[in-house]
Amino acid sequence: MGSNKMELSSEKIDLDSDEESPLTLSQSPGTKQSFQFEASHTSAPKSKSHVFRKLQYTALHSVNVVLFKAKINVLLPFGPLAVLLHYFTGRHGWVFFFSLLGITPLAERLGYATDIFLVVSAVGGLLNATFGNATEMIISIYALKNGMIRVVQQSLLGSILSNMLLVLGCAFFTGGIVHYPKVQRFNQTAAIVSSGLLLMAVMGILLPAVLHFTRTEVHFGKSEVALSRFSSCIMLVAYASYLFFQLKSHANLYDSVDEERENNNDDSDEEEVPEITMWESIAWLTILTIWVSVLSGYLVDAIEGASDSWNMPVSFISVILLPIVGNAAEHASAIMFAMKDKLDITLGVAIGSSTQISMFVIPFCVVVGWIMGQPMDLNFQLFETATLFITVLVVAFMLQEGTSNYFKGVMLILCYLIVAASFFLHVDKSDDD
């Protein structure tokens, strides 16, 4: 009798446990398979919806970071407005002005996406040369396609002058004021190497101009083009060697001179955590580059009309106004790093960008013009070449001590104002004139 009660109680326990967990204690293989089918059938939609919600959240987060988080993006609507003005009014002055405003945030966002991509992928110099100066390259190639060689030369020259005088000057000034009376220091060896490359670029640009203006060409009008193409290939080789020198063989020379900075690597890493992923940055680089290309077309087409309507020399627009837009990213980041007492990064942004343009972008445009059948050369004319030569000498003397203060920044800014005033009064003349 007692054994029957025990069997009944055990069966009751089994029944109860079966109700709670049919998969675990059920002896029927059909039931188990049925339950597994139902479980997989019900979990699949949940997994897909979860992935969809995650992708949707990631996309919204990326759009918010790139398009809405930066205050400078309030200028983005001026780009479409410039396109509308081009088709409905034909007023080149306003088209140029609004295109200029519309490209400014795009240039800054290109710089941001490039920085994120380089932080995540750690690729380095060549990508920085390609994407960091993407705005200048796009404008230059579009102008070169339309045969506007002087606009290409002057805009690239202006970008070099703007980076070395205005961007670096503002960075030295703000950094010196914030950290006064401390003397800020940077890697002197890296600065000397960059100065040497800039002087080499001056040599490549100076000799075709001297050959032309001394009338010592073997074939007038052709020898300077041939020399420019040969020198451009040499400069590209030199820049590739510089990348190998900087990133591989002598990377230790580019270490920061601030020991406290090295001791606080953990804090700096926490501050530099990227807000978007590498693939998101690649997608944004593609989108922004396409939109910059579109606006660059309207900008270049309106330059001459803007010069006539504003009664302003084309050289001033090309050398002063266009580079300010193209260097928006460099300007903001150089000042920010100088205020954080990271002058090595500041020099990498300002002087590094000038080196990239002079040793990579300019020779690259000469080669592209060669392929397009456009006689793009390194003869930047006597006035522009002399300005570049003097500017490189001034900056080289400023960097030779490896120190910075606010007074050096003031001097560089004042030098830039002199250059701006000179180009405002400068008008290109033909060889016959």
UniProtKB/TrEMBL annotation:
Belongs to the Ca(2+):cation antiporter (CaCA) (TC 2.A.19) family. Cation/proton exchanger (CAX) subfamily. The keyword Ligase does not apply. This is Vacuolar cation/proton exchanger. GO terms for molecular function: calcium:proton antiporter activity. GO terms for cellular component: plant-type vacuole membrane. Pfam families: Na_Ca_ex. It comes from Mikania micrantha. Vacuolar cation/proton exchanger (CAX). Translocates Ca(2+) and other metal ions into vacuoles using the proton gradient formed by H(+)-ATPase and H(+)-pyrophosphatase. It is found in: Vacuole membrane. Keywords: Antiport, Calcium, Calcium transport, Ion transport, Membrane, Transmembrane, Transmembrane helix, Transport, Vacuole. The chain crosses the membrane at residues 81-104, 116-144, 156-178, 190-214, 226-245, 282-300, 312-339, 345-370, 382-400, 406-427. Residues 94-247, 281-423 form the Sodium/calcium exchanger membrane region domain.
